[in-house]
Amino acid sequence: MTATAAPASPTLAKGLEGVIAGETAICNVGQGQLIYRGYEIHDLAAHATFEEVAFLLLEGHKPSSSELARFTQEIVAERALPSGVIDFIRTTGPMLKSGTAVPMDIVRTCVSILGNLDKESQEITHEANLRKAKRILAKVPTIIGHMQNVIDGREIVEPKTGGDPKLSHAANLMYLMSGSKPTPAYAKVVDVSLILYAEHDYNASTFTTRVIAGTLSDMHGAMAGGIAALKGPLHGGANEAAMEMLKEIMHDVGEKGIGTDAVDNWMQNAFDTKRKLMGFGHRVYKNGDHRAPILHKMGRAIAEQDTKNPGGHAALKWFELGEHVQRIMLAKKNIHPNVDFPCGLTYFTMGIPVPQYTPIFVASRVTGWAAHIMEQHANNRLIRPIAQYNGPDLMSWTGK
Ligand code: ACO
């Protein structure tokens, strides 16, 4: 096509459904498959660590053991936040308390400040982008952890180092949030959740980052846009919204109601009022999101264990409620849960505060975003679709 030729007959695709908006070598999403650079998600969840998957996405191939050691060291060395970002986080208590900001907004602002302080912020070469991606990947868990410390009114955990260098990305995130090191079982479940969340081709937030990168704008700005897009409850915000919905059902039907008509009635009312059930449905997966059963199984195992522990979270009842809701949704609407549904249940079981579920999604998805930003910059064309006008007919401003 020449620069001046217009497409023959453009058609309207609301929500860009079914539109192939570009190419990627990073991820292949289809019915029954999710592949990161040639590796299937079940394989990765069972055999890889999040650090290995992050390397795969950012550097483009499976790491050797020496490459992984080098990468891990690079990330650990970048975990601490600049004092300007810590100072900002210390001021966020009142805004979080009043609700003018939620944790996703704080993460977004912190990533923007990191950009303002990054000596390579305006560089968009592949090498500079890769270095910046690693710095952002390293620092997002520290942002989340420090913010949670402020919310809980505890001293900021490890502000000088951004954590314990011996801990993995997942374990360190949990340590920074609470000041306590997680059990290996908990760290493993969070690690797998990060693997599942890392990448998903042209989803709304990644597409946002590509649109921003496509103007030759910078990585921190594109990431800030990605965070804003991920926040919404139709996208990543669904992991928080799903848990809030389950809490609402539990409250409305009472504990004795699990598995009884009370839940059916609650659901029927939701259907009658055309309420969207959070954590269900997907634009691409129509026969189920196969990330969901991986996390459901792991989360349920943790819940079963915890329910047996004196002082545990008695979390199994939440999984039982969730499973009942899933059965009704499938029977009545033929709609399956997406990954955010078991994620909400799993993080809840582990005692992670609900408003941090989507920020934790960010701690993983920055890898996918960065890979797409670099891919966009490497072979760029401005992303600029057209709209079908449905406004008023032509009028004269002077009325003549
Ligand atoms: N609850 C109730 N009904 C639903 C749901 C749901 N969660 N999802 C889809 N439907 C229904 C719609 O009402 C619609 O029915 P209709 O044809 O009778 O009007 C039909 O299924 C098709 O749904 P759309 O909304 O058109 O599907 P779309 O592809 O536009 O939306 C989306 C996908 C946004 C994920 C939708 O399923 C939804 O809102 N789900 C709840 C939010 C959610 O869980 N988002 C997380 C997605 S995964 C992720 O981002 C990591």
Short description:
With 400 residues, the chain is an all-alpha fold. Helices cover 57% and strands 2% of the residues.
Strand coverage percent: under 5%
Shape: globular
Structural class: mainly alpha
Helix content: 55-70%
H/E element sequence: EEEHHHHHHHHHHHHHHHHH
Query: What's the CATH superfamily of the largest domain, by name?
Result: Citrate Synthase, domain 1
Mean pLDDT: 95
Spatial arrangement of strands, main beta sheet: 1-2-3
Q: In this structure, how is the largest beta sheet organized?
A: 3 strands, antiparallel
What is the CA-CA span between the terminal residues? 41 Å
Q: What is the domain total for the residues? A: 2
Tell how many strands the DSSP assignment holds.
3
Radius of gyration: 22 Å
The number of helices is 17
Which architecture of the largest domain per CATH? Orthogonal Bundle
Tell me which ligands are bound: acetyl coenzyme *A
CATH topology of the largest domain: Citrate Synthase, domain 1
CATH class of the largest domain: Mainly Alpha
Which structural traits does this protein have?
400 residues, mainly alpha, Citrate Synthase, domain 1, Cytochrome p450-Terp, domain 2, 2 domains, 17 helices, 2% strand, binds acetyl coenzyme *A
Describe the structure.
The structure is a single chain. This protein has 400 residues and is mainly alpha-helical. It has two domains: 27-233 and 356-378, Citrate Synthase, domain 1 (Orthogonal Bundle); 238-349, Cytochrome P450-Terp, domain 2 (Cytochrome p450-Terp, domain 2, Orthogonal Bundle). 57% of the residues lie in helices and 2% in strands. The protein has helices at 41-47, 50-59, 65-77, 83-90, 93-98, 103-117, 126-152, 169-178, 184-197, 204-213, 219-231, 238-253, 261-272, 291-308, 316-333, 340-349, 357-378, and strands at residues 27-30, 33-36, 39-40. Strands 1-2-3 form a three-stranded antiparallel sheet. α2 packs parallel to α17 (357-378) and α9 runs antiparallel to α14 (291-308). The chain is globular and about 65 Å long. The chain starts with 26 loop residues before the first strand and ends in a 22-residue tail after the last helix. The structure holds acetyl coenzyme *A (ACO). Acetyl coenzyme *A binds next to loops.
